[in-house]
Automatic annotation (TrEMBL):
Gene3D superfamilies: LysM domain (3.10.350.10). CDD domains: LysM (cd00118). It comes from Eisenbergiella porci. Residues 471-514 form the LysM domain. The lineage of its organism: Bacteria, Bacillati, Bacillota, Clostridia, Lachnospirales. Pfam families: LysM, SipL. This is DUF3794 domain-containing protein. InterPro entries: LysM, LysM_dom_sf, SipL_SPOCS_dom. Signal peptide: none annotated.
Amino acid sequence: MELIKKNIHMDRIKCKASTQITMEDDINITDSRPDVYQLIEEQGEVVIDEIRAVQDHVYVKGKLEFSVLYLSDDDVRRPASMQGSIPFDEQIYMEGVAPTDSVSIKKDLEDLSVGMINSRKLSVQSLIRLGLYVEELYDEEAAVELSSAEPVEFRQKTINLASLAIQKKDIFRIREEMELPGGYPNIFEIFWQNCRLGETDFRISEGKLSLQGEVQLFFLYEGEGENRPVMWYEAVIPFSGVLDCQGLRERMVDDIACQIGHKEIEVKADTDGEERIIGLEIVLDLDMKIYEEEQTEILSDVYGVTKEIEAVSGVGNLKQLLMKNTGKTKIAGHFKVAAGLPKMQQLCHSECEIQLAETKIVEEGLRITGAAAIKSLYGTGDPEVPYDSISGTIPFSYVLEIPGISPDCTYKLDAVPEGLSVTMIDADEVDVKAVLVFHGIVFNHYEEPMIQEVKVTDLDPDKLSSLPGIVAYIAREGDSLWNIGKKYYVPVSQIKDINELASDEIHPGDKLLIVKGIS
């Protein structure tokens, strides 16, 4: 007698930890940059250089890279910028992590503020949150069938699974060249640039992963010419492509994290030798997990007809996809120019960043609370302060519907802004509208009794002789043909034949004739 088993390939979180890092430093303006008259805005990015695990601890080495846009302290106030970095080296307690584990990290720049100490020195303060986790792959061995030369009865049950079919990292390159429209002066120097990844969509086909999305590009530049005009240019650059992915099949479910890993903007000369071509090269880092939903029949019980058979069961830890869902919510608000700042004459560029404060499992799904941080660069028409920025936050609370969710579920959530609209009401106030898009994938984790082995022994003669040869059995509440057959060592099919039953269904009060098969 042999159990036929199937390996179920799954993944789970082995251990995780999180920490906040507060960073503060005074940064000198580099000699090649002009003195600071007034700060306009700043942007930053957390870069991880090294992750090293030891027993129960993880060492993380990285840096905060930041850029500052300001007005120069010259006779003519002109935009200027500088870049800098602040390193960090952290030891984080993470119970259960081992030196051989591969540690993944999620990094968020929760706050960045830059202040002016004097015309050659800035104060930089930031708050960084690091989330660390170790994922492990594991196999559950499930008995799905029984092979036996002896007559034996077994039954199966259907379980729903999300097996991990593919796990890999890949990259996707975006290369584009754009020419400045007519009416824009040639580019002499780029003061400030911003490049963000917009909504990205993935589609699965046989052996292929298709992706499409858009990149949002903005830059402020000094034009060629006697007056050295300050100009800005922004564009939405669509992209699409296909990656080969062996083993990929339709109807699989993707869980893909996509972010910009490298970006480079280069100004090139056109065919006339004029600096009007913008070359953009972006590398998207893809962290791919592909799941396959399946229904598997596993053995749930077994009994012998001519032999005593005992099923030895254990507990399997299984994972199933509860739901993958996308939801949207609209936000709106008004911001005013702060007292003492110059009035707005023209908006140059606006951007939105979603700051998640809390994600909580509730009865209806995932309750997401946070704020959308909006920042707009504007021109003033004032030669003393020709550019400045206005910013504000719009709080939100939204429930992404996930029917059947429970506190034991695990989830992954991404939030992306789309359709940002910032318009001037007057010189002091702007109207803001946007749509926030939430992508969530939720898994249910559960324990399932699973037969691990069967023990076969000879029937006890005394027990067998105590059973009557023929029994007139009246079904009671909770009875089934399986339980009755198991009690009397009779195949279910034999009970059905003798009693001319078309199905396995019986009801309390039904009269059954049970004939013992062996003596």
